[in-house]
Records
---
Amino acid sequence: MGDTNKNVARMIYYALHALQHRGQEAAGICVHDGKSIHSYRGIGLVAEVFTETQIALLPGAVGIGHVRYPTSGAHTLENSQPILVKYRDKTIAVAHNGNLVNSGELRSELEGAGDIFSTTSDTEVIAHLLVKEIQRYDLADAVRAVMRRLVGSYSLAIMCNDTVIGLRDPLGIKPLCIGAIDDGIVVASESVAIDALNGRLIRDVAPGEMVVLRDGEMNCIRLVNSPRPAHCIFEYVYFARPDSIMDTKLIYDVRVNIGSILADEHPADADIVSPIPDSGITMAVGYHQRSGIRYKECLMKNRYVGRTFIMPDQSMREAAVRMKMNTIRPNIEGQRIVLVDDSIVRGTTSRRIVKMVKDAGAQKVHVRIGSPPIIAPCYLGIDMASRDELIAAHKTVAGVETVIDADSLGYVSLEGLIRAIGLPEDHFCTGCLTGIYPLDIPGERSMSSQRRLTDFPPNDGGG
Amino acid sequence: MGDTNKNVARMIYYALHALQHRGQEAAGICVHDGKSIHSYRGIGLVAEVFTETQIALLPGAVGIGHVRYPTSGAHTLENSQPILVKYRDKTIAVAHNGNLVNSGELRSELEGAGDIFSTTSDTEVIAHLLVKEIQRYDLADAVRAVMRRLVGSYSLAIMCNDTVIGLRDPLGIKPLCIGAIDDGIVVASESVAIDALNGRLIRDVAPGEMVVLRDGEMNCIRLVNSPRPAHCIFEYVYFARPDSIMDTKLIYDVRVNIGSILADEHPADADIVSPIPDSGITMAVGYHQRSGIRYKECLMKNRYVGRTFIMPDQSMREAAVRMKMNTIRPNIEGQRIVLVDDSIVRGTTSRRIVKMVKDAGAQKVHVRIGSPPIIAPCYLGIDMASRDELIAAHKTVAGVETVIDADSLGYVSLEGLIRAIGLPEDHFCTGCLTGIYPLDIPGERSMSSQRRLTDFPPNDGGG
Amino acid sequence: MGDTNKNVARMIYYALHALQHRGQEAAGICVHDGKSIHSYRGIGLVAEVFTETQIALLPGAVGIGHVRYPTSGAHTLENSQPILVKYRDKTIAVAHNGNLVNSGELRSELEGAGDIFSTTSDTEVIAHLLVKEIQRYDLADAVRAVMRRLVGSYSLAIMCNDTVIGLRDPLGIKPLCIGAIDDGIVVASESVAIDALNGRLIRDVAPGEMVVLRDGEMNCIRLVNSPRPAHCIFEYVYFARPDSIMDTKLIYDVRVNIGSILADEHPADADIVSPIPDSGITMAVGYHQRSGIRYKECLMKNRYVGRTFIMPDQSMREAAVRMKMNTIRPNIEGQRIVLVDDSIVRGTTSRRIVKMVKDAGAQKVHVRIGSPPIIAPCYLGIDMASRDELIAAHKTVAGVETVIDADSLGYVSLEGLIRAIGLPEDHFCTGCLTGIYPLDIPGERSMSSQRRLTDFPPNDGGG
Amino acid sequence: MGDTNKNVARMIYYALHALQHRGQEAAGICVHDGKSIHSYRGIGLVAEVFTETQIALLPGAVGIGHVRYPTSGAHTLENSQPILVKYRDKTIAVAHNGNLVNSGELRSELEGAGDIFSTTSDTEVIAHLLVKEIQRYDLADAVRAVMRRLVGSYSLAIMCNDTVIGLRDPLGIKPLCIGAIDDGIVVASESVAIDALNGRLIRDVAPGEMVVLRDGEMNCIRLVNSPRPAHCIFEYVYFARPDSIMDTKLIYDVRVNIGSILADEHPADADIVSPIPDSGITMAVGYHQRSGIRYKECLMKNRYVGRTFIMPDQSMREAAVRMKMNTIRPNIEGQRIVLVDDSIVRGTTSRRIVKMVKDAGAQKVHVRIGSPPIIAPCYLGIDMASRDELIAAHKTVAGVETVIDADSLGYVSLEGLIRAIGLPEDHFCTGCLTGIYPLDIPGERSMSSQRRLTDFPPNDGGG
């Protein structure tokens, strides 16, 4: 995120708040005040990490921010972002959404050349590569050189002294978009961050494109080309906010469409259709519209479960899910119910919810899922569980149905899902659903054709 | 809330968590361990106030808890509850939901008799009255004597040494219900607290009834009778959770019914119906079902706004509402939209939301409200604003329509609302909607007949 | 403490800070802004409880404050002071230094008359008595009436609406003094609080005297007379700061005198004299001066041990005392040492220190104590331990010498101590040293003559 | 600090606590549990940063710790220590006491070779050099190679995986010593850290010596030799604790000697000699012993001033020093007083104290200082102020006397100071007192002969 406004830390605070669903573990902001970089990071939600006092200690008209998604590693401050590195007269701050597949190799190679690291994060690897290339080349060539080395997903916000750069990987795996606000430009993971600043979405950052914000001006250059993009399909299913527009598609529409297609592919003889909140709500509305089955909520979520909530111990384990979600018993008793959710990962939560709904008196529980079965792990930025833990990696749909004790279980087809989104069918990363990845991942199958990166023809650049 | 389980503080913690929507200002728990009372209170949400350490310092098999609703006064710990008073060998803890109308008079009278207070709360007045009467009479007679003195709304949880008492005022203004859990009895404001403990709702506490929990046994006695109850009608419209059953009615059903009746009373020529989240969701579903107009969300709420969130300052005031709620622009552009909400208090928020939706490109915005106009203040426990601030106290519906800039505005009728609930029409307090109160309130009109309290015929008691 | 300055909370903060040694458990400030009372209390040191924000929320030109000494009871906020009680149009805040002997009786009697309490503290009893009498009499008569009822030690700061009152018990057990600052008057427990505000000590408050500060004016009235005072002798030995002047005597001088008299009464054949820091320092200087034995420190205190310090567990118990105090081994080896301390309570610490010093190579350790043996508990405000725990209550001096493993042990005589102070011999409470108390204490012996209180002749009052 | 005990984090905690006077800004501990390094750092005192929980999260039998002295830079967590760097299979943690003179050059050079940094601290420069050399050489040669590059003062605790290294710079500028505890070896800045663990001081680490602790064994190797050491003379005057033994000398004795020599060099016709607490106490005792002038304290320090203390604002500036120190007026009135302090830096505090003592009625105030005038800045680890701020850099003794308004002013001579310490006269760094430094410092004069470092003859090593 970058902007030429004076009180940019405050604006980044609001933008990060709008993106809070993308990471709740840690938050950080770096700004540049014309002379030097100021930075503050902490463990927790944006609103927990930053106080008025902290914001006031971050003067500057340009800056970047980050919310950290809890992937691997402990909750340590050291791995929080933006990561800062210093080199000669330059301080470079990097905020990274995504995951590198070859960070181990790159790190080894950099260490072979003598590089020393302060953290275990792949973001520091990117920062080191960048610092090196910037010594040799102009900015565009330096970034292009770095991109040639990186294998993985990476939407990046970089601040190099007072220049802010937005960068999207050549496959466009993770989202990134550009917006205009009153007196500046914003680059953000989702358009809701632009909305929060009362701005206007200009367009998505293209795969392989770099957006440079300097002295109040924006320059966009496509650096690297790939035969076709590989957008993470799970952003549409689950990760993004419904009110975001991502690669031209409104997530809300996509999810209504998914529900509608689910109703076609997996009809049910039922009295009501009910979402598992919050993720299943929009899909359930779509299912209801298409099927004509009455929409009625069976489960109510408690809005107040926070970080410090004391979860029930052994003696009350049954109650654990109840702290987060309650059944509306009279809506359930004697009913044949279609329960709609976005996905099944381990199956544990689905099983508990089906049990809760049956305990509340449901006659039948038909589970409908807005994604195909997840059969393989994600290496590109979504913390989905290992292959061992993924229930659909080891069981047929019938097997999963038995485990979660549903009267019927239907997953949307991959074709249906892609149709719901409305982008070309070969424009996605569907690794978790097919086991075939758009990048070479050791031990996994890849669409080897996809990663033939070429430099972008120079005449395509520009702002 | 009372229970005979060993780890009762932990259970009260979960129950309070389920009731968190009833008050976010402060939370407190008192327990009795067979010898003495232990108490802890703090400012903030239940999950913020209590840690494992605090819970561990509250040993005991019986107890009561409270979440404080921010009415008047500063956020001081002194006014948090349960309030404790000590008298000879007795320690009495009182948790109060509601508001006394005559607390000033009672306080003066008690002061006339020499009573000295530590707080400004009306709960301390109740505690003093109770202590006095308990010296003279047995428990039932003492509580009856206190009830004769109190004018106002009061659902009370009282702990007198190791006896826990639940008490509901003679008009049953505020809710109170009884549930059975594995090894004990719970009395709580809403049935969701019983659900959280995996318990079973037994029934509502009757107006004027006292529930005594002692040595693992429950005794119920109706102490005072009133010609008819006066349940707060706003609990159904707004305050209670949709998954609660209150005075035999499921709130979810009531709100669907309200939406349905709204559709009949105020149809609209529109493309979509959308709730103002969260309060309008269930009513919007009802409107959609009855009208056949497509259900589509136009507004998305940010789930992460917390206590410490830094709100935009003057220069970004427009953005304030945007931090909490975002428009889904593509769902809005060119559409004729029915926006459903539960109520309009000052009109400020409604005006801002209508503006946001119009700015996002709506062709028409028809506002539909699930309650009649609020024309008078609440003296009985809901912090609704003063008469001056209430927009409908000074303007006709057409006037409000103009102020909020809606293309049309329709409120459900009082008759429609009562029909949606399904209880007899004279069983409600409708003070805020009619200006006529079930109790004598200085300067206001009252249904004088209602408050002719009589002692309940002794043969009606029992457990 | 009272003052007519605008920013009085800030000044009280500094005064409390100077009095921090009198109580580290909790701190509180109440101020009056001309309209109402504002109050804030918290657990911890003054500097921990109050921030700039808290001070800013306490506007007012008059006020009182308190630091709480950890006597009995848990570290609960409820027992922190000033205690506030409300009665009709009056709010009365009371801060109390001392201990009532008859608070149980008074409480029962007040309860008999219907009084209800919020805490278990004797200060609330005083507040209740005061509220009652103020209804009936003018201020002087009301306070006199209260004093007739109280048996015990009590220096009080009272704020009744915007009037501040300082009051000292008829025996003057606890200290209280008056000072002038730039634009106001201060009443405080020790003169160092006046020094902290750059003020000038005017005089001690006389036993039985009331100081009234109102509208910038001071009025002093002696309300109750006693044949002679009974100043707590332990204030001189241990409790007060050396730089305070108390009942006309500089504590520093008193302690040098004690050391000097100790040297006469218990000379030693030694190479060096060393204090046990910090309490023994001034006495050791006196011993050195009188005896001519070289002053050399053998023990060094760590200044940084704070509230949250993690003390060694079982496996390192020996180290516990080492965390607070270190031996200076080269100053000790082969030396015959006089170790000077102010008192021995349980004997445990003395034993550990003698062992440490011997382990560090001392040839002889002669212990000299600046008070006579403590043979009886204190009922009047110093938390000294129960009779069971007091080593000198059960052992002769020779017995104590054996337990602490000193080569010789000498206590100053009571006569010597009184001579060191320089006030008449019958002007002290020496309960802990003699077992004879100036007040009737059930089960203890008393100087029954002393408590024949009479009203002070009216012509003695005035300011 | 290193040790083979199981609960080493806890022991490091106690050792750091004993060294708290060496740095109050931040504290950190790193331990190795046989597999990996665990680390925790925070802003504040040791007792504020670490809780039982934090200690429990630091398992391991070896470790190092650090307390940070507030030199330049903001109070940022990033500059706190130990600093961690990661390189291939090694994690290296470095804790540094001292200051590099050539860190800018080294940093540039490393950057020239491509090194990238995460902080602005010179400790990270040391860590990088070390990582590089360790790839090429065995440990002793690697460390020797690093030492050849470093110009400045550095006592280092290094942990390279599970090997702990203590290292003292070739001039021995900063202290470092070795101690034996029950089941292990400790290397620490001062012997009081060994005392805290009930250990026994073995000896000082020699200048240029490396101590290696691995698998419970200690190996000592002198790596680099210098013609003579250059111990920081200010450690003796002010910085070290009186109970430490440093380079074989007990600090307490040194300070008594200083006082004694001061009395010879600058006698005074006075009634009493009084320290400025705490730093002047031991010197004042020495002055008293030699001069025969009575020892009597005139100033009393408040022990409770902490980090969060609210200092007086403009309107009370006079009071600022009063918050920390109070005059004992009766000890001062009419007296001719010798005030003894360790040093004068800016003169501001001395002036305020002299004024306070005169305001309290002193007839004469003779100031005696236990160090020669500070005429030049320290580049080697003590935050003394810039040359501009140093009062004695610009004024004669008579000039300083006038500024601080003393009746006479006497500094101990450099010869006297060195005699008081008792080490050879050319074994010190006296840069701040003479302007001549033992190292080449750009723009300053140096004892150029001193820094002719040679490798230590190999037969001198050993343990």
---
Amino acid sequence: MAIGVFDSGVGGLTVLRALRRELPGRDFIYLGDTARLPYGTKSAASVVRYAEQAADALVARGLSCLVIACNTASAVALDVLRRRYAPLPVVGVIEPGAAAAVAASRSGRIAVIATEGTVNAGAYDAAIRRLRPDARVLSAACALFVALAEEGWTEGEIVELTIRRYLEPLLQAAAPPDVLLLGCTHFPVLAAAIRQAMGQVMGEAMDQGLAIVDSAATTASVVRSELRDATGPAGSRGSVRLLATDGVARFARVGSSFLGEAIVADAVELVDLGR
Amino acid sequence: MAIGVFDSGVGGLTVLRALRRELPGRDFIYLGDTARLPYGTKSAASVVRYAEQAADALVARGLSCLVIACNTASAVALDVLRRRYAPLPVVGVIEPGAAAAVAASRSGRIAVIATEGTVNAGAYDAAIRRLRPDARVLSAACALFVALAEEGWTEGEIVELTIRRYLEPLLQAAAPPDVLLLGCTHFPVLAAAIRQAMGQVMGEAMDQGLAIVDSAATTASVVRSELRDATGPAGSRGSVRLLATDGVARFARVGSSFLGEAIVADAVELVDLGR
């Protein structure tokens, strides 16, 4: 049975990419709910409803594990989906992301950048403090990052200035954080630009180490540990099936940079979640 | 009976503002389909379905006129909605916007900036050429403008650089346009920044006149002409009822600058379009 992965759109393809690296023999089925994206500015009630519909469509196809590759949906819908599909393993990206951040931090001062929905839910705060009760978590909602990533603008002056506008208040604190957690699956495509802009802002403090971490690799490890037969048939490369709820041509075009491999529009199946 | 106005979110409030100025005695009911915004990156089929649901919710409340205050929905769903509700007058923003652009242009060279959905539909091209067959229409999709407007970033270096990146290719043509049509209801809040940035790009050509026009005022005139008793009860100020399909607090916060008057979150009614 395949591993099911869903997100509001293309962002979760950064998680699928890490899953494919961790579990190359496995089959995957990915659903991007592009008809309702973005989730990050929607209310928790709407995101829960959308997540249930997206997950239902995947679970109906038969899964060994369900991955919520969207921070906003993980923040507000993980418990609901775990109850709904028990005993199917359901893995979100918040707890793995929090674990990666805590592992990378010496000082316990962690900055989290995410969508408005994820920040408002406070899920990273809670998950980080569960692992390290003395942690100090600073959060910022970076709405423009999603638009920049979707537009394919991942470097240059506009990107740099936008990064500085959002991050300077977080990183120029008296006691700056030593970890910056990318709490939205769109943000890894901006990681190089963030590293560069932060080097300019923080100077020496950055040289002393600001680790930029995201949820993708640790989520893939958690998924691997949930599966009994982790590797799949020896030597074979698993398949990937891609579904989207709207605009398959756009999904293929924008998604290729997130997945790190070319996506052919014809290969993306349009599905209807019933509005 | 009220005049119904709908948009994917807060952008159409720029049209409501013009309608209130043109028809101060009238009652209005406005629906922002914030649960599914933005429409501008969605497929035509999805936008038609969303527009039908939004319009159904308004028409069920009893209307004297329905205004599609969203360029993307006007571009793809106007004919469908006119048939669906005949003989109710249904007014979109594309034809009024095209009329404003043609009236303002001496040379017939008109630049249109809009969302991806509106540009792909080619509706402005067609509407402008119906009014002036020899017109030369240049179009550009400016996805970041929606995000900037929603974030409340309407001036400063990031805004200026983004404007220049999108508009320089349009405006530095050998024969530059003399009209720039803002073909998305989000864009009027960026009009001052666009004027300033374009002054820097075009220099003398701008001094000789680049008119920046949008659909709001001409749409309000068309609505006025569709109504028999245009003014409403003499001397009274009509009411405005605001509905949103998600996130009423965010709608109130972001929408106030679009409407040009404060919106209290408690005054925004949450509606469910079915699902």
